[in-house]
Design brief:
There is one protein chain. By secondary structure, this protein is of the alpha+beta class. It contains 5 helices and 8 strands. The chain has an 8-stranded antiparallel barrel with strand order 1-2-3-4-5-6-7-8. β2 and β3 form a beta hairpin. α1 crosses α4 and α2 runs antiparallel to α3. The longest helix is centred in the first third of the chain and has 15 residues.
Length: about 180
């Protein structure tokens, strides 16, 4: 389980590393994003637990077994927020960097943040409310991220598929 989360984070936040970054057009920069952002929390674990609960109910598993399974899952992933610790910096010149060595160029199209670097683009739905930044990842983004890894086991893919196709997983950041 921890392996899947590390893979997901790597793909989400570090995919835009490199030096061959396009130049971000100034009119496409959201001044509300400029600055440093520190990871605060995520609803990833709660969302996964809810998806597991629904999946197990649909499979006819008893409520007692579901409660035990979810409790075991939460115990296994307790402290997982530490894996998500990340500080992001979006600069006014359209450059981007994080404290894990990722860097690139960023711009926005509507409520989509585009991070580009190393010949790749990553599109992330976002929302800024004052000093709060939320990244919103939908089911397709999550599935594509895991498929890119290419070496997930069938069991791991089944686990990810327990998520409803309408699922949204959010990562919350605070302005530093």
């Amino acid at each position: 389980m921890q392996r899947q989360i590390v893979v997901l984070l790597s793909l989400m936040f570090l995919a835009s590393c490199g030096d061959d970054n396009p130049v971000a057009p100034a009119e496409k920069l959201d001044k509300n994003l400029v600055g440093s952002w520190v990871f605060d929390s995520t609803d990833f674990i709660d969302t996964m637990a809810a998806g597991m609960t629904e999946f197990l109910r649909d499979e006819g598993v008893s409520q007692d077994v579901i409660r035990t399974t979810i409790a075991e899952f939460r115990t296994e992933v307790s402290g997982m927020d530490e894996l998500f610790r990340l500080t992001l910096r979006f600069n006014a010149d359209g450059s981007y960097e994080d404290d894990h060595g990722g860097r690139g160029t960023w711009w926005v199209e509507g409520n989509i943040l585009i991070q580009a670097g190393n010949g790749e683009e990553e599109r992330i739905r976002y929302f800024v409310d004052g000093d709060d930044l939320t990244f919103i990842f939908d089911y397709e983004f999550l599935m594509d991220s895991f498929r890119e890894d290419g070496d997930l086991t069938d069991e791991e893919l089944v686990f990810i598929r327990i998520l409803d196709e309408d699922v949204k997983i959010r990562f919350f950041f605070k302005r530093k």
